[in-house]
Design goal:
The chain has 2 domains: about 5-45 and about 290-395, Aspartate Aminotransferase, domain 1 (Alpha-Beta Complex), CATH 3.90.1150.10; about 60-285, Aspartate Aminotransferase, domain 2, CATH 3.40.640. It is about 40% helix and about 15% strand. It is built from 13 helices and 13 strands. It is globular. The model has no long low-confidence stretch (mean pLDDT about 95). It binds 4'-deoxy-4'-aminopyridoxal-5'-phosphate and glutamic acid.
Length: about 400
């Protein structure tokens, strides 16, 4: 069989692959601590699951409109725009099978052959693949390490060409946990508007935020709509609501682009699973229960962030890390142990898995082979044991 050029450069998701391998080794009897997966270790709040079960019992098991249940689109618009100057207009929202599909819809509908898409680096592993699948060219742009890799308009200006059509970034960032301030994001959005570049702001970790002021991390919709230019903002239920397996994500943009993405999705998957949409609607609209559940999870993520930083300071002083302001990862350098045999993060992470039984994701997946990423969405005990075990390979 021969394969299409569409997938000539396609590689499977490294974040998913590490986690799958860890589960396989554990199932085969190996003592593995899986710090690869980027998913909350909490169960979905019971009352959210109950709403979906009730929906199924009530026979709500048929297709929905491609862009999602109208009431869910409206609730997602409300969720994403609350306190902002953007309209809470459900027509601007498309509900998809995870924010992953939302991002892919946006890339496919906005970019094509001849286009370049700037990608804040280190990046979530799927962005370059999505851009490549749209037959456009991904252009990673790294901010300086001293600024936790956050981009400035100067960084972007240096990388842009007349072919630059888009810019993708995540804030809070996967993998670094760095978060743009409203001013920093505003400067980037303004640069993008002047360059006629569409900004895709992936804000799936917006509620996993440790900033002093509390609440959500600043997002692109907090900006002044007149200065921001073309925007697509993605979010979803996976992280803040512990609903990874339900597969519900949202995009918020203009009504025109939303209708194009909806048309695209109508041919690809049609709609996010109907019971999952019912669950998402319950999660977004039972505000007080949701606030309680999210606060409990956030407290755990905050505690683990402090724990992992203390453990690194004590056991892994040779592995400097980015102190995360959001999300649930620690992104740290492993190049201090490079030698003749260990020449990149892939080598180091393979050895950590083999000798210490700890699964972490090599930085190659995020565009920098000097780093690795561990998830802190695991129990305190697993995090502590994982770091201690990693120290046996990565040294003190
Ligand atoms: N963006 C980032 C940065 C992520 O880490 C994830 C997690 N997989 C997603 C998007 C997609 O999330 P989901 O498809 O589960 O909504
Ligand atoms: N977002 C998570 C991660 O980065 C889940 C896996 C994925 O979809 O990439 O690990």
């Amino acid at each position: 069989m021969t394969y299409s050029d569409n997938i000539a450069k396609l590689r499977p998701s490294a974040t998913v692959a590490v986690s799958t391998l860890a589960k396989k080794l554990a199932a085969a009897g190996r003592d593995i601590i899986n710090l690869g997966a980027g998913e909350p270790d909490f169960d979905t709040p019971e009352w959210i699951s109950a709403a979906a079960i009730q929906g199924i019992r009530d026979g709500r098991t048929r297709y929905t409109p491609a862009a999602g249940l109208p009431e869910l689109r409206a609730a997602a618009a409300e969720y994403m725009t609350a306190g902002t100057a953007y309209p809470a207009d459900g027509a601007r929202v498309v509900v998809s099978a995870g924010a992953k599909q939302s991002l892919y819809n946006a890339c496919f509908c906005l970019f094509g052959p001849g286009d370049e898409v700037l990608i804040g680096s280190p990046y979530w592993t799927s962005y370059p693949e999505m851009v490549t699948l749209a037959r456009a060219e991904p252009v990673p742009v790294a901010g300086s390490e001293s600024r936790d890799f956050l981009l400035t308009p100067d960084d972007l200006e240096a990388a842009a060409t007349p072919r630059s059509k888009g810019l993708i970034l995540s804030t809070p960032s996967n993998p670094t946990g760095a978060v743009y301030s409203r001013e920093e994001l505003g400067a980037i959005a303004e640069w993008a508007r002047e360059r006629d570049v569409t900004l895709i702001s992936d804000e799936i970790y917006q509620e996993i935020y440790f900033g002093d002021e509390g609440g959500k991390a600043p997002g692109a919709l907090d900006l002044d709509p007149d200065s921001a230019g073309h925007l697509v903002v993605t979010n979803g239920m996976s992280k803040a609501y512990a609903m990874t397996g339900w597969r519900v994500g949202f995009s918020y943009t203009t009504a025109e682009l939303a209708s194009k993405m909806s048309a695209f999705q109508s041919h690809v998957s049609l709609n996010a699973a109907t019971p999952s949409q019912i669950a998402a609607l319950e999660g977004l609209t039972r505000s007080e229960d949701a606030a309680r559940a999210k606060a409990r999870m956030l407290e755990a993520f905050r505690r683990r962030r402090g724990l992992v930083a203390r453990l690194f300071d004590e056991f892994l002083p040779g592995c400097p890390y980015v102190m995360p302001t959001g999300a649930f990862y620690l992104y740290f350098r492993v190049d201090g142990v490079f030698d003749d045999e260990l020449t990149c993060a892939n080598d180091v992470c393979a050895r950590v898995l083999e000798e210490a039984g700890v699964a972490i994701v090599p930085g190659e997946a995020f565009g920098d082979a000097r780093f690795a990423r561990m998830s802190t969405a695991s129990s305190d005990e697993e995090i502590e044991a994982g770091v201690r075990r990693m120290a046996t390979v990565l040294g003190g």
